[in-house]
# Entry
Amino acid sequence: MAGAALVPARLPMAKRKARIGGAPIDPAPVRGDMTAAELVDGAFLAYNGRRLREACRLFAEKMLEPGVFVGMSITGALTPAGLGMSCLIPLIENGFVDWAVSTGANLYHDTHFALGLQMFQGSAEADDVALREAGVVRIYDIFFDYRVLLSTDAFFRQIARHEEFQHPMSSAEFHHRAGRYVAERERVLKLRRRSLLAAAHECGVPIYTSSPGDSSIGMNLALLEMEGYGLRLDPLADVNETAAIVHAAKAAGMKSAVFILGGGSPKNFILQTEPQIQEVMGVAEKGHDYFLQVTDARPDTGGLSGATPSEAVSWGKIDPNRLPDSVVCYVDSTVALPLITAYALARRKPRPLRRLYGQREAMMATLRSAYERVRRKRLRRGES
# Structure
């Protein structure tokens, strides 16, 4: 009898189920004819699989609501792997991405395909000395001819010498203008849509580069500066334009969502829009409403790439009241992005294109008005 006191009292069944929590793990067998969306919903029940299911549902069910501006940051060599064609272009053309921040490298390698140049599946165990001697360039397990670089370099130098480029501009303006030439090259070569830049141009999606000098595009534009051409990419214009996009959504009573692939500088650039509005400009705001990141970076190293949504709250980047609407998937983007894309296309109808590129001046005017109101108040109080 003394030992009986050690046996915990059994709760009624209803209370036990409530204490345990979620739905039971009881999946149906996987079938060969299942769609990607059915597979995610039916078999991704725990661990990082479940995080990926949560990511798919967050994106499709909340971030793609009509009243949400969706910004995407793109890091890692995704376009060389074909993910521009397979995933990013369908997301843009279906209205699922309204604006983006990308590494310059992704946009540079994206252009190879539109120029009719080829990249090939290779081996990460190849002899790189032998590849160099053969004129073959390697991005992990992707191979391409060194002449692909030279041809793409020549393309960007050629178009950037045109008169329409001879003035300071945001990186979005440069990419939009360049995208028109890329789309025309696709047309002349009779290629199906292959370029993210061309798709963004035709859909009016502004694409920014947070470090415009850190890519082969920037390297070639730097050479034109040495030759005396007038093109200058203005990173400060990028800071203000991206903040204006987020502010425009909030000022119109809408929401702002960020879909982060990888981390790095593009992640910070897309998130710093809120501190720019709140901290620097002093305009009242609470942060982005939805946060979705796919990353392989750990948070404990202190790097931005692995920083969690809750850490972003402390900077004002994420609305603290919206933390339940944030998901981090610790999965390679080359695995997660095709599944998220397929899920969204299966569960959501296309959204009307916002064509934010053509609204940049209007959005900047709205942001300037908000800042001028704050500035006048500061001046009345004797603040700088």
In short: Residues 360-380 form the longest helix (21 residues). The mean pLDDT is 93. Residues 35-380 form a domain with the Deoxyhypusine Synthase fold (CATH 3.40.910.10). The chain has one domain: 35-380.
